[in-house]
């Protein structure tokens, strides 16, 4: 009776196993559970043990291949990102060189009383086109001080009454240079009627506004990158949009905006897939 029960148990164990692969065919990883049961039922079954070892090895090889493919994909993605980053830095450097040439022109014009009006217009254009990057804030601040110092020396030499003993010049002084020659060539009443004084005040306010805006966008760019590093991609995108509203060609903001947008979409897709499960 005991022998019959053992035979039935063995038969039941084999019946639950998956069908064995045909002779000569390498077993797949899907056979492992059934082969394990078979070996446990009869540890002396050398053929079952061999097939179990082969099937396990096949599964391990597939896992290694999948890992290798994933690693290769990650490396390829990193290489693409690296190329994009290098392209961004190259574009930044090109723009900075152009900006420095414009700076040199402003300084040259501002050093000559005969070209002082052109210098004021060039200075405004320089402010409008100043690139805001994470690594050039001190450079732009130093440039602004340099320009104002050159303006001051020229004004003090040619129009000393405009500085009236001061040792520096401000945006209002610079703006007034656009209209000063007109005021000296025409009589006082005519100059007053032309509204030159108000124009100078408006121009001075524009200079101040541009300088303030540069400071705001420096803060925004650094804030956006900090949000990106914390994986708060949606918030980062909104901040980079602010930078780009001031400087639509800002290479650094565009680069991180694209990265954040890609990450944000991937995160959204991942969350959607998770919710569907």
Structure description:
With about 280 residues, this protein is mainly alpha-helical. It folds into two domains: about 30-60, no CATH class; about 85-265. It is built from eleven helices and no strands. The protein is rod-shaped and about 110 Å long. The model is unreliable at about 1-25 and about 185-195 (pLDDT under 50).
Structural class based on helices, strands and sheet pairing: mainly alpha
Number of E-type strands: 0
**Element-level helix/strand string:** HHHHHHHHHHH
Task: State Rg.
Answer: 37 Å
Number of distinct helices: 11
Largest sheet: none
Query: In the residues, how many domains can be counted?
Result: 2
Low-confidence stretches: 1-24, 186-193
The proportion of strand residues reads: under 5%
Helix content: over 70%
Q: What would the principal axes of the Cα set say about the shape?
A: rod-shaped
Q: What average pLDDT do the residues reach? A: 79
Distance, first to last CA: 50 Å
What is the topology?
Layout: H1 2-15, H2 32-41, H3 46-110, H4 116-128, H5 137-158, H6 160-163, H7 171-185, H8 188-193, H9 196-229, H10 233-246, H11 251-276
Helix pairs in contact: 2-3, 3-4, 3-5, 4-7, 7-9, 9-10, 9-11, 10-11
């Amino acid at each position: 009776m005991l022998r019959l029960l053992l035979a039935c148990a063995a038969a039941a164990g084999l019946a639950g196993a998956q069908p064995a692969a045909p002779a000569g065919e390498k077993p797949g990883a899907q056979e492992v559970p059934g082969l394990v049961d078979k070996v446990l039922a009869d540890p002396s079954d050398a053929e079952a043990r061999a097939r179990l070892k082969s099937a396990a090895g096949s599964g391990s090889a597939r896992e290694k291949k999948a890992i290798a493919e994933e690693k290769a994909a990650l490396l390829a993605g990193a290489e693409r990102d690296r190329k994009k980053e290098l392209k961004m830095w190259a574009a930044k450097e090109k723009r900075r060189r152009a900006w420095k040439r414009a700076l040199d022109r402003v300084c040259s014009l501002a050093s000559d009383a005969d070209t002082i009006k052109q210098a004021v217009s060039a200075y405004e254009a320089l402010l409008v086109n100043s690139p805001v990057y994470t690594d050039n804030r001190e450079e732009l601040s130093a440039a602004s001080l340099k320009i104002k110092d050159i303006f001051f020396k020229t004004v003090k030499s040619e129009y000393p009454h405009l500085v009236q003993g001061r040792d520096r010049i401000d945006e209002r002084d610079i703006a007034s240079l656009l209209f000063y020659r007109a005021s000296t060539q025409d009589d006082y009443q005519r100059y007053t009627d032309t509204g030159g004084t108000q124009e100078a005040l408006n121009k001075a306010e524009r200079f101040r506004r541009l300088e303030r805006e540069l400071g705001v966008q420096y803060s925004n760019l650094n804030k956006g990158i900090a949000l990106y590093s914390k994986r708060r991609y949606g918030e980062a995108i909104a901040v980079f949009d602010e930078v780009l509203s001031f400087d639509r060609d800002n290479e650094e903001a565009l680069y991180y905006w694209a990265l954040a947008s890609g990450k944000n979409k991937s995160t959204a897709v991942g969350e959607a897939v998770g919710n569907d499960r």
